[in-house]
Structures
1.
Amino acid sequence: MSNTATVRRSVVLKRRPNGSPRREDFEIIEDAIPSPAAGEAVTRTIWLSIDPYMRGRLREQQTYAQAVNPGEVMTGETVGEVVASADPRFVAGDVVVGARGWQTHSVTPGDRLTKLDRHGAPLSAYLGVLGMPGATAFRGVTEILQPKPGETVVISAASGAVGSVAGQLARRAGARVVGVAGGAEKCLWVQDSLGFDDCVDHRSLDLRAELLACCPNGIDAYFENVGGMVQAAAFDLLNPFARVAMCGMVSQYNEAEFPPGPNLGFVVGKRVQIQGFIVSDKPEKIAEWRKLAAPWVADGSLIYREDEVEGLESAPDALAGMLGGRNFGKLLVRVGHDVK
Amino acid sequence: MSNTATVRRSVVLKRRPNGSPRREDFEIIEDAIPSPAAGEAVTRTIWLSIDPYMRGRLREQQTYAQAVNPGEVMTGETVGEVVASADPRFVAGDVVVGARGWQTHSVTPGDRLTKLDRHGAPLSAYLGVLGMPGATAFRGVTEILQPKPGETVVISAASGAVGSVAGQLARRAGARVVGVAGGAEKCLWVQDSLGFDDCVDHRSLDLRAELLACCPNGIDAYFENVGGMVQAAAFDLLNPFARVAMCGMVSQYNEAEFPPGPNLGFVVGKRVQIQGFIVSDKPEKIAEWRKLAAPWVADGSLIYREDEVEGLESAPDALAGMLGGRNFGKLLVRVGHDVK
């Protein structure tokens, strides 16, 4: 995809997936690259972020966002290069984050775009460790979990874009941090590279016993990304006055009907706080997080890992793979290249 | 029971109940009225409070308190008259709250006793509206639900000692308050006497539809006393950013195994806060509440209702009745009389 292209390609939802999304649920359409109206900019996509919340957008029923309907372009955050601007704050050649859509080119009101520094962190980082997933971890840990030195914090999906940051933040706060991840390779990375104190493979035959072995003093704070059996095991071990940051329950996103959950009697007896949150409710937190974390990324003290797939047409399979736990690190689709 | 009695009667747990407690699970034993050691006082019980938490104390497994074991006197808060004191702060004839036990006479460290004013509220009120249940409602509403004017607040067990106060506090805060109670008589009282905006009979054939009809704008805050189908119906109607004060789940207290609960996916999407609490974690709140609410009780603006049963030997049946929803208002056992 060069700067002189005239055709835009977009991934459009064809039909709502039944279970795991499949390539056949989407189709690629082509049209002319649009021109910006006043106040808008047109960007050429370099990176497209693939995130678990996207499965929710494919459902007809929504709780906090608009559904993506059949015939509409699939939604997703991108980093791109401005190719045409009718907003005086942007000129062709700028790189920006904030445009959306599984497409090679997006039209976006300038108010939603943030200009990035090509000499700062790698551009992809603004979709992961320095972007929405990083800010999600930041809010969950600082606003809800509030770990104290010596407490035990459990992070599910610990090798993922959110969990990897959440655990490192809890460690910086002085907590003992235990991850839960899928498979030996991820667990090894969570411990050796991220520096978590321990990590449990959620595919273990006796997850509860393994988690208990890693949390001999119980669990004081739990960062929930997955639901299902991991949730059940973690909830069983919660200590009095435990906090639970409810960020997502990816293990059930492909299910048509959600299974029953835990009996909540323990919430009373243990005075547990279970708090749901969505990062976009406080968009100002993303800028705050970027400012705080950029030096940590620059000095290498905040570790992150990216999992890159090639080409816009790979996005549906990438989403399906993420929902099955097959990515390893922040999942990104390379849609184009930064030619500067 | 006169002041010159020499025999003490106590209700002792004989065996752990299987399901609803029965009279046969307890026995009455007699011994001599004890003398106080230094710093203690001996009280003659006037009122014994019967509260839902007591069923939990009969289980072997405890989360925040000590179990009552077979052979031990059953626990419960009382108002009584000091008959002997080895604490200089109390003299025979004082009425106090804070002694515990299903018994005619209790020995208690003076530090746990609070002297009451015979010329203030009726003594029984210090076990209900001005006591632990009232303070429980106060904490749940002011610390967790934090109702705003125009919001919809739902209170389960609305005619009970806690729910009746919680709903009146939410109304004082300007919220629209909907109760859930068992039966037409209780619902009528909740609306006509307590002034709730509406009340749903939890025995309705279609509880969810009835609750929806009373909450056309959804539920912003829910005070949970009961669990089960009422919880399921209320959770279904929670609005974004709803708060849930988890005070108890009395509908399952007699169950050996607790049933599954709600799938918690909605907690994320709706950013719900579910917060458990136990009033005794902040004992100072009881004094704060008494001070705040005493004028409201005196001027009749805070309504309460008591359900009195006669005689210590009635306590086991009273507890069983409460767990089955057969009391109507704060349940009290009259163990003795105030002879002054």
2.
Amino acid sequence: MAKDFPTREENYAQWYNDLVIKADLAENSAVRGSMVIKPYGYAIWERMQAALDKMFKDTGHVNAYFPLFIPKSFFSKEAAHVEGFAKECAVVTHYRLKNDPDGKGVVVDESAKLEEELIVRPTSETIIWDTYRNWIQSYRDLPILVNQWANVVRWEMRTRLFLRTAEFLWQEGHTAHETKEEAIAETEKILDVYTKFAEEWMAVPVLQGVKSPNERFAGAVETYCIEALMQDGKALQAGTSHFLGQNFAKAFDVKFLSKENKLEHVWATSWGVSTRLMGALIMSHSDDNGLVLPPKLAPIQVAIVPIYRKIEQLAEISEVAVKIKDALENLGIRVKYDDRDTYKPGWKFSEYEFKGVPVRLAIGPRDLENKTVEVARRDTLEKEVLHIEDIDIKVKNLLEQIQKNLFQKALNFREDNTRVANTWDEFKDIIENKGGFVLAHWDGTTETEEKIKEETKATIRTIPLNAKSDPGNCIYSGKPSNKRVIFARAY
Amino acid sequence: MAKDFPTREENYAQWYNDLVIKADLAENSAVRGSMVIKPYGYAIWERMQAALDKMFKDTGHVNAYFPLFIPKSFFSKEAAHVEGFAKECAVVTHYRLKNDPDGKGVVVDESAKLEEELIVRPTSETIIWDTYRNWIQSYRDLPILVNQWANVVRWEMRTRLFLRTAEFLWQEGHTAHETKEEAIAETEKILDVYTKFAEEWMAVPVLQGVKSPNERFAGAVETYCIEALMQDGKALQAGTSHFLGQNFAKAFDVKFLSKENKLEHVWATSWGVSTRLMGALIMSHSDDNGLVLPPKLAPIQVAIVPIYRKIEQLAEISEVAVKIKDALENLGIRVKYDDRDTYKPGWKFSEYEFKGVPVRLAIGPRDLENKTVEVARRDTLEKEVLHIEDIDIKVKNLLEQIQKNLFQKALNFREDNTRVANTWDEFKDIIENKGGFVLAHWDGTTETEEKIKEETKATIRTIPLNAKSDPGNCIYSGKPSNKRVIFARAY
């Protein structure tokens, strides 16, 4: 396994890119800005999907599917939405190709021009609310708790694998409610689902909060978010949950007859996480030796490697190895026994280390004699020799320990890299020289927010939920502020 | 539940369309030719996906994801493929919108024209083989056994929900092999997977065979297919598995160093099934009372309805109903206990009947006294009163029986509607007046095939695999033929 890639210290951006490609997670495609998600990367994404999908269903949601294409005119219906979304989009203008009269390949058939252009969905509020109009007549039809797993396209100029791609995979929930309170409760419930998923599955600690008006989703009344901190000190928005008020119901004329027999506009939420989470996962835990995966999301949780000189020894080792494999699989653990004779043990060790397999077991002739197994954990790179008795239980416990350790390590990192700034100079110094989250007072205006961004590239990542009142003065304008917000440079 | 829709006899096409809409499976969207798959329909599709995905993985396949967009020039690389696919496609020509100078909505920004147009994938052979070129160097990199779950777009002029839509959901497998034999074996293995899925999960019997050259996938050397027969006597192609030879490897220059150290082109297969299967499922089993679903794919397998006059009686009934529900769920059965007081039992009966729930249990005061339950099965519409003892086991057995019965009924229907034609008059008479599959001799030429299609609208659905030699004369041309093929009018 090739280790010819820079350390995080040397070049963090290159380290990330090389890691994604060399660990077989994803690669760039022939289509600018679109990636290919390779089987190993997709296997991780599938586990994320399965866990999230179960959490959505456990909280009463169902899946559905809406069209990829959205008529152009739909984007003009919600005023804020069009500003935020209708700009960098893929536009379908024709529906046919024909043979080039010159005999070279195919050309667009100009006679097959669409009357109205179709936009490849950048997000689906418009087409979904156009649909909900027919689904909702009375309060009996509410709530609608629908989620969709889909691909979306936003024409990004500067792309990075998983973090920012023209096409990406995501889920988008779109719910409809009788009351404002119920819609807000839904928005918050989903924020909790996302938080639980990030922390318990991805082992990535996140801050919960709301966005400043400037960073809100185009068309939302309030955008809730979870924010994670990467190892280079930059923040990453890991998921958003929007309270949309009645904006889309008004734009698409979606009304219901209430229990009080009044015609009212429906209240809405939307929420999503995407393949961007793959970027967060990779950047949170991986190191200069390669990928580090939390056991709950690792496609292979345990790799077993036989150590032998002569092929005759392999049969004896395999007998033990297969027993261990079966015992582990009976506990629901995903195991690969790698008895390929075409690669040396050292090569396999590097391979599983590089690909982030949480636990590697090695069994050699001496282990057979001593009834032992060498157990190596990826997170700490520690090795120990354990007696074979109850090895399945020991490994199961170790996997749980690794899952917890990764979370704790990431939490410690975030705590070590969350700083309070009380003056503008302090703020600039931290952002420039230390990175991480900065807790600072802000006067609440978009003007100040934008000036801070201009001068430091730092943005308000989130306004923490339930922060205690803590009066002070805006680090930039000196105007009064009643609580601190979180600033950082961000992905 | 509204039953104001025609019987199959009165108007089969309308019956199908109304059923899909009124049973909340899918509906037309604001985008011409694109459907919305509603939660109840999507829940069935999810079960199909889960079953198929497991079968693919059990046969060694992994999932990945490739771009939605394909550069236009890729389509010109495989000569047959461009003829078959590059015509009716959605073409992306621009990547930005801007505010209309007139102040009305948004217009396409002409300055954001793509240098090369992008085609929304109608199928992914081209982009995938362009990718495989970088994945494959030596025989050690083979086989590649990759599947993708994705949406695709083919610009259809006449669309029908699930059966033919501009956008549809599907899976497409794309495999790469060292040898011709291995690729053919893969093609056949997948045909068996599809057959098993159709028959064991969907309860739809299918014929296995290959397509005539005229009906082959554009770019394939051989197209294997499974064909089902619908209740109106029309055939429906339910899945295809293509042996692609070295066509795509040559078009995209994908070579590998063989064990003999020679540079050779890679052998390929591709295979897919789509949301079209939903149409096959609905049309195979449903009746004039609504949807009929095979238990294995039904989102709700058992509905329990309490019968009571006074609300006081409900608590007592619920106690028994919940116990039954728990016992059934412990056996892995999907149950809904419908204790809504806002609807009458009769309304609920119609609802579950219309939505195809395989088994409905009803419990009233007299049942409490007698320790009985009324059990109604959807497939035969029969009811019986059973003692409550071991009701969970009885229902489980009944579900298995229903699954088998649906398959047997569909198989009987197909056998009753498979006829032999020995003369052209006989052939025309069957096609025109009886429908179904017709076994007839064909001279093997595309010319004859097309003339038969012109005159009768019947096409060769499949050339059965392993059919015994049975010499005769072509029903149309009188030329010699050594085995019969299957003709039918088709969806």
3.
Amino acid sequence: MARTNTLGVTPQSEDFSAWYNELVLKAELADRGPVRGTMIIRPYGYRIWELIQGELDRRIKATGHENAYFPLFIPEGHLRREAEHVDGFAPELAVVTHAGGKELDEPLIVRPTSETVIGEAFARWIDSYRDLPLLMNQWANVVRWELRTRLFLRTTEFLWQEGHTAHASAEEAAAEVLTAVGFYEELVRDCAAMSVIIGDKTPGERFAGADRTVSLEAMMRDGRALQTGTSHDLGTNFSRAFDITFTSAEGVVELCHTTSWGMSTRLIGGIIMAHGDDRGLVLPPRLAPYQVVIVPIGRGDDLAGVLDAAASLAARLQEVGVRVKVDDREQLSPGFKFNEWELRGVPVRLELGPRDLAAGTVTLAARLAEEKEQVRLADIAAEMPDRLTAFQDALLERSRRFRLEHTRNVDTWDELVEAVSTGFANALHCADPACEDRIKEATTATPRCVPFDAPDEQGPCAACGKPSAYGRRVVFARAY
Amino acid sequence: MARTNTLGVTPQSEDFSAWYNELVLKAELADRGPVRGTMIIRPYGYRIWELIQGELDRRIKATGHENAYFPLFIPEGHLRREAEHVDGFAPELAVVTHAGGKELDEPLIVRPTSETVIGEAFARWIDSYRDLPLLMNQWANVVRWELRTRLFLRTTEFLWQEGHTAHASAEEAAAEVLTAVGFYEELVRDCAAMSVIIGDKTPGERFAGADRTVSLEAMMRDGRALQTGTSHDLGTNFSRAFDITFTSAEGVVELCHTTSWGMSTRLIGGIIMAHGDDRGLVLPPRLAPYQVVIVPIGRGDDLAGVLDAAASLAARLQEVGVRVKVDDREQLSPGFKFNEWELRGVPVRLELGPRDLAAGTVTLAARLAEEKEQVRLADIAAEMPDRLTAFQDALLERSRRFRLEHTRNVDTWDELVEAVSTGFANALHCADPACEDRIKEATTATPRCVPFDAPDEQGPCAACGKPSAYGRRVVFARAY
């Protein structure tokens, strides 16, 4: 049996999967819903989502996109109008057949994604080139009936944002795809502190109905990949299916070029697995519900003074924009609280006791540091924003280094198999689906993307020796 | 056929219902979804919702409530555990019977409200009195299959927030019910500029499963009532059904007392109908997507200067926190734009032409005023926040006066019938359901609430002459 820490989480180093499952529950990020595969996002997890939403929504709006809300239910017939799309989603659909006490004439699909229902609306709203580009986004829940589910990573219902845009030209649509990638890149790097690779999906891994899918792929602490956002160029596939046309300045009726892009609550699973360690979560300060927790220590008369000092310190931290909590729960020991806030990944813990007060100091325990520090009580609030920024930067740098240390250029089958067992493999690849299948069967690894920033390179496929496609190396990895 | 204005909306005074339906579409607040009774909330309408969310969410969090997210799907069996609750909602349920390509063993209900799924989670999370009060809220979509639907007012799917709390005592739960009413009162009065009455629902109008329901009732411009928020004391009904218990400080296992409270996208329908007029919407500044629209006027060389001045004015307005838009669409005439922004209810329109520029003035058209005003260009940005506050106050005062002018104390059947044809009737009432039914049949009016602030009064029921119940007058009205 695996060892467990005080709060009962299997160490990551012993069983990554058990560590993850236990941590999500014990840190009170989420809980299981009553229906198989569904999730309750608890306040601590939901606050992370709200912080993600705030950061992303601001970027989406700053580039001229507007939020809207489209219906949950899609008539079955709508989904069938784009053939590849329905083929891709058919096995995962949840279907409403009865409503208002009667059987419905046409079953309703609970949206797995909204291209079809939005496509129909776009067709009605767009008339002339003056209506373009049409740039929309929605924050919504979607349902995909998955066989194997895991909290945050793969749940029957999840929360996300989905951007949907229509453009007058292929060039504008192509630029939009990258604008969205830019949001995600900033969010993931600057807020989630995750170093990612960005590139094109290979044809077999594209969104159902897309001409091109760009994805961001982060590396988890077990070396697996997790997709943290995708952006799709839908070409004229959906505008043809839904008749999304416009009259050009020259008076010609043309098909629009559309895009869609999304980021979901999966990202929270990514944050857990990209940064967490044996002691629990490590939250990046910019997305941490509490950036600082103050644990007052003391008994009897001493405690009253400590609690006052803690409240005053919390107020000063709030003044400089720090999200802070004073953990004044009476029934729990300081040691239990230390473990709990480590488990819950709070970046900085401040321990404040009567001796600290007398000395004008406070004990600071940073979640990434081995040693505690004594710092001056009078200065710590003013210093905290810089300390949190340094913490954020260190976390990103650690993520970058970890990814590079677990990524290898591979040129042979054996090297490929070996590399994907611990991380990412950069391999020249023939683009033959049969070759992809063989790799997947042997290793469970799949092509994650063809990175934008990989150098031009040609040569034999690492797996089968046939000439390479794509003009550069493809990243293979096992993925969540 | 009714007359229509330039943008084609039937005047409110000729056909209120047609006015509403056309206005929602023409102002681009919402559109119909492909499934009967569903709604697309377009960016202009969704922005109002975001502003409502911001105002309400802040108040909810400031009082210690935390946001969370619970699943969309509820097992059918869960809903049956509270008997009154399932009876109330059964006719309106949408049911998922198939998912992942198979028929499900147990059908899933698409949540019409979340007491049951949240109740089950509360039962797991609450252990001791130290876990109480548990104060949660979620922003979510819900589905109720309505026979007669109307955009915003009654849609198959709508957006709302639902608060759910558990307490150690009946007193604390009762206080919580009023805390939530306090949020709604502030939101509706200070942001939506609607003067409401607040009071208890009569037993026949309570939430299914509640011991007590408090509602806020606003008056629309046609004299009908619209409920703008409800707060329910659920007593121990749900904690009994879901086994939500706690161990008290004395070591005794007791049932929790729970509450729930909600406010939805219906409020947007209320804002439209409480303030709108023949020319279209009138939006309260605090919830207006654009508080000020600048319409530049001019041709050729003149226009460039005007556009520069408009951009600079917009920047100054933004600096003082005003939400402003410069309508620089080239293909439309100023006159068209004036009508359009009136239709869309923008509180203040600023018209800026070469002659204004030369004179250092700008023409100001307030949405509630008959006459335009010339104001000094140099001063208007600094003055605008106060002007918007004055607009907001005037709108609330107009709403209050309208409600009072259309409310009558009635003591006879004839007076009651007459009063509810144009507004609210304050009537002593016997509380007999048969008497309520008779009133409803004759007038379609129902008891809206028993206002908190009505004076104590007894006497014969206005409808049937039997002795009055409730100890004060009940408000009867036709309602949305």
